[in-house]
Amino acid sequence: MLFSIYKTLIGHKYLFVKNIKGLIKMQLFNNNRVEGKFISRINRFIAEVEINRHIHLVHVPNTGRMKELLVKDAIVQMKYHPASHKKTDYSLISVKKNDISICVDSRVANQLFYDYLSHGKLEKFNNIRDLKREIKFNNSRFDIGFIQNNQPFLIEIKSVNLVKDQKAMFPDAPTIRGNKHIRELIEAKKQGFKTGIVFIIQRPDATLFLPYRDMDPDFSNSLVEAYSKGVFVKAFTCEVNNERIEIKKEIPILL
To answer: What is the pLDDT of residues 48-94, one digit of tens each?
Structure first.
């Protein structure tokens, strides 16, 4: 049963971490990087950016609010990749704040952690097989699945951009979908899967991760419950520059 599904596919607690092996680098641009100044966000997916003194519409590949990052005149990096089927010629990839580059493309987190697993960079997940993406379970699709020691795993990846006083927090907007994912991970755990949620902090300046309870208490409570029921929770910071992003280190989590 478990394999057929796979193929279709508390109080505060500190979670401390072990060292991780090496770094995985991911190119953010392919000779198509363009710099500009952020003007305004029109909606969740479209922003206005000034490029060479002209205003352009830019795709924002992140549904988070990012109000502390996407401020007027912020220096942003974009990918220029025009195509006839696209509404914009540019995608917003990173933003500068206090001389730190922060990747805001939420799609990057999934690929980055997938590459991390496929290269055996986490000691806990050595000797895995059938590593796949977009695994269906019940009414959800999870970002990563694999088999280890004949045990099926499901992992959900969350991209994090918000950091306050060196504390990374998620979510920066209420997330019904994110809460649903956690509830489904708890259910999968009951059915014999090993499950986990990984927070990829796409910036280097966090030393601790915690759920943003004031923003979404339901998500925060579900995360604490999931951990108490055996769902593993991990958080990693990233180093970001004008060309690439790489996982930097695992950091402690406060639940």
So the answer is: 999 999 999 999 999 999 999 999 999 999 999 888 888 899 999 99
Question: Going from the N-terminus, what domains does the chain have, and what CATH number goes with each?
Answer: 2-26+105-254 (3.40.1350.60), 30-103 (2.40.50.580)
Mean pLDDT, all residues of the chain: 89
Which of 7, 250, 246, 4 has the alpha carbon at shortest distance from 145?
7
Whether the Cβ atoms of residue 131 and residue 146 lie closer than 8 Å to each other:
yes
Q: What is the DSSP string of the chain?
A: -HHHHHHT-----EE------S--EEES-SS-EEEEEEEEE-SSSEEEEEETTEEEEEE----S--TTTS-TT-EEEEEE---TT-S-SEEEEEEEETTEEEE--THHHHHHHHHHHHTT--GGG-S-EEEEEEEEETTEEEEEEEEETTEEEEEEEEEE-EEETTEEEE-SS--HHHHHHHHHHHHHHHTT-EEEEEEEESSS--SEEEE-TTT-HHHHHHHHHHHHTT-EEEEEEEEE-SSEEEEEEE--EE-
The tokens 């999870």 sit on which residue? 142
Compute the average pLDDT of residues 92-114.
Answer: 95
